[in-house]
Each structure stands twice: as structure tokens, then as C-alpha cells.
Amino acid sequence: MKALLFLFISPAALWAQNGSIDLTRLHNYANQAKPAYITKDNTPAGNPITDIGATLGRILFYDKRLSRNNTISCSSCHHQEHAFGDPDVASTGVNGTTGRHSMRLINARFANESRFFWDERAASAEAQATQPIQDHVEMGFSGSDDDPSLADLITRLSMIVEYQVLFTATYGDPSITEDRLQRALAQFVRSIQSFDSKYDVGRALAPNDGAPFSNFTASENAGKRIFLAPPNQGGAGCAACHSPPEFDIDPNSRNNGIVTSLGGGADTTNTKSPSLRDLVSNNGTPHGGFMHDASLNSLSEVVAHYNSIPAIVPNLDPRLTQPGGPPGPAGDTPQRLNLTATEQSDLITFLGTLTGTNVYTDPKWSDPFSVTNELRLIILPTEQMTITFSGEGEERQATVSTTGVPNFSYQFQSSLTLLDDTWTSVTITADTNGLLTYTLPAPESEDKYFYRYAYATETP
């Protein structure tokens, strides 16, 4: 008896590179490599990253149908090419612009701080995931101000055939709930990581962060020393709030001294920061302005701010003050680091070493939709399919079964050679329990068979 091989891959000539989702060849989200020195991970036990869960999250992240008028997605404010941040000062939503600058999302998983938003109002990535959707300005399903509610969005998504197919493949049934939306989106966001920077190359060769990095220039090593050392030891004390190697924000950090609001007035509630990784692009260009109000336009301005904190403000982090003489008690004087121009330049040069490369172009984090914002083909997962054989010789048959959405029509596709013009498709309708099954001849004389089930919005 000849060997029987089952593969499920998309013929290149059949579908364009975007607009198809192959659930048999998922991107690696769950087991991505990370350096041994990266030890922080805020993934909750109840929602581990899975390849299929993050895939669903990726689709939701890029789908404009999650907004009231089908114009805004999560990716509208968090662009892959900008470290999943926004170059605009304020992001555009369905009803105006946001009240704060959109935060970069890279390496959100690798932090002690698990809360989200500048003011930390969301306790987790899961809690954060649906808040922009329910914001009147951002995506418009607030349930107030004449907006539809999140329940209305869930009803909308439940009527989209592709989501019934995807939720069934991910969760075992087509039910769409806020919890499932949150879980999938959180998995995708936590999967976004960047560990291929110049810093990472040097850190892998060094015994610790304090040792000189062999691949660094003198200026970069000097800047690293300034970053790590406290002010009373000739440094800037940056590591007190942004500890390497993750460069995440200390959960106990308070306001950083910038209290202006995009809407006017004061805003002293901003106590969170994204990771300092990928602050700028590989050519040193910022991914938009820095801080919650995008008021600082360059790393030079950022370093100058911390070098000389303008004033004591409500909720200011005490690490940004110094024992400060008359007329008040210690700690009433803003920080004055007195870094020289060369020291500031070295610090900026070091911060540039934290930028990676892969995260900006890796297809696992890219837009999965076609240029016309469609998903045209969804190939169902291999592990949910069974194949049984009966008969012998010319009577030998293969019965191929899997689970789909009850009463939905799918394409059963088969090939003997995997050449594009040898694939054949038969329309199969799932029964009332969602069972898809098809029986076809399986002569023992053939070496290989290639079978798959797919949902197609267009007939191949």
C-alpha cells in the first residue's frame, strides 16, 4: 500500500496573498523565540496565547466592521509600520479625534505593569480590548449619544458568515461574545514582540546590562551607562522607571511632569508608559510625538524634559524631584540632572539601539484582508479533520469529515499533485450539527492525496 499524505495549502494562483486565512498553517504566535534574559510575562493563566486565538485576534484587530460606520479598526490607531503606534498627535475615530495620543503596543506582554491606557483604567489587555469599540469617539458602539451598543456589534458580527466560520474553528461553536472578542484581541496584542535590536545583539554577548557591549560604539556604551546609573552617580536614573532588559514601566510610577491635555486644561492622571523599545524607527525617526499629548517631537526634547523637570505638579513621580532646599521640605524641587550636551547625545544614541527590525514587516502582524477589505478564503484546521478508508482496490474510498457551521456551504477541495490546475472543488453543506463529510475514490495505486475543507466567499 502506498503512503497517503494530507496537506492543506493554498494554491498561489488561486488566491491573492491577502484575503485568505489558512488555519492549517498558522503563524507562530504561541511559541515565539525570546532571549533568555527576558523574564517578565503578564499573560494570564486563563488566556494563554494560541496560534488560532491570536489569528482570530489579528483579523478582529484589522476589521473596520468593528466600528459603527465601517471606517475604523484597531489598526487605524496602531500601525504596524509605526511600532503599532500612530504618527498623528490624536487618532481619528468615527466621531472626531481621541483625547490622548495612541500608545505603541510593542512588547506589552513583557512587563510587570499589566494595566492599559495612559491612566491605567483597564486592568488587563482583555479589559482594554473592547473599550475603544465602546468609545463614542473612537469606534462608536458606546450605547449612548445615539450610538448602538456593544450588543449591537455582536449581533452584526454574528451575521457575518466568515466570523461564524472563524469562531467555530477557534472556540468550537459560532457564538460571539464580548469575552471571546477580548480574549482573541488580547492574545494578538500580547503576541507583538521585538527582540532583534542592536541592544539585543549586545546583551546576548554580555554577562549583564552594566557590562560594556562589544557591538556598541563608545557613545552607545556611554549612553547605556547614563541610562542605568542613578543621578547621584552621574547618570540619569532612567532604569529606575524603565528597567532593562524589557524597558517596561514600573507599575508604581506616577506622573512624569507633563500635564497638558489635548482637549485643553490639565491632565495629571497619566502614569503608564509603553516599553521604551522601538521608540524610533531604524533611521531614528520618531513614530509620532512622545508622551500622552504627543507634545515632545524628538528624543532630544524627551531627554531635555527629564534633564530639567519644569515644575512640581500634582501626582508627580517622587523620583523626578530632588531634595530641594528652602523654602519647603525635601522633595519639593524638580529634578535637575545637569547632563552635558554630550551626555544627552550619548543617551539618545543608546535609546536608538532599542529598535528592532522584524516587527515592522512580519506578516503575522499584518493586515489579513484583501485590498477590497474582504476575507475570500478560510481553510479549516487540520486537527479537526478525520479521514477514514473503506473498500479495497478500485472500490477503495476515503471519507473526509470535519466540523463547520450548521447548514453552511463549504468547498471540499482535493488534489493529486498540488499543481494549481489539478485542484477540484465540490460544494458541501454542513448538516444541522455542523458535520461536513465527503466520500471520494482513493485508489491504492496513487502515492499522495491532498484534501482540505474551506469556506470561500467566492467560488474558486
Automatic annotation (TrEMBL):
Residues 263-284, 316-336 are annotated as: Disordered. One of its GO terms (molecular function) is cytochrome-c peroxidase activity. Its main location: other. It is found in: Cell envelope. It comes from the Bacteria. Residues 267-284 have a biased composition (Polar residues). PROSITE patterns: CYTC. Residues 1-16 form the signal peptide. GO terms for cellular component: cell envelope. Keywords: Heme, Iron, Metal-binding, Oxidoreductase, Signal. Residues 52-161, 218-355 form the Cytochrome c domain. Gene3D superfamilies: Cytochrome c-like domain. PANTHER family: BLL6722 PROTEIN, CYTOCHROME C PEROXIDASE-RELATED. This is Cytochrome c domain-containing protein. It comes from Oceaniferula spumae. The lineage of its organism: Bacteria, Pseudomonadati, Verrucomicrobiota, Verrucomicrobiia, Verrucomicrobiales.
